[in-house]
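Quick question, first post here. What does this chain look like in 3D?
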Amino acid sequence: MADNGFDYDSVLEACARRDKAAFERLYQQEAGQMLGLAITLLGRRDHAEDCLHDAFVKIWSNADRFDRTLGQGRAWIYSILRYRALNQLRSRGRLVSADDGFIEQMADDSPQAEEHTAQQWQGKQLRRCLQQLERPRRHPILLAFYRGLTHDQIAERLTIPLGTIKGRIRAGLRALQECLQA
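> Answer (accepted):
Ran it through. Tokens below.
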């Protein structure tokens, strides 16, 4: 359950049973915030709206694949949106901006980072956990998540061996998971 009392897991399970009212509640609860994230990732509202539509179609058609033992419902729906956005970026051949300032803001104390993460990812806890990660682990994770870079692209961009990048990402994700479960 999220801090606002909305039970994402139960709503997704109802969607898996084809409960249209549950799906509508989910849409009403998250569409605005998901659209904001899609605009941030894609840079254009029209592309973001298409992405949001595709994400909700995917959520409805795959709700039976959601498993609360594997993660939180809200994270599951946002991962679907994120993958749809990254696929759009890849298909347009436009994945990475040269500025990594946005990446590091996600773990900073700036008001922009607080607002973005609070709205998009139940942010205070995630931000706290990201801040606890040392930069060599945090930066590759953020490049992968917010810019959609592959391990190879991250290694090239940071001029660090691929094996080192993979190890840092694995260790960083383990540390994040432990922190978020604490």
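Residues 1-94 form a domain with the Rna Polymerase Sigma Factor; Chain: A fold (CATH 1.10.1740.10).
The chain has ten helices and no strands.
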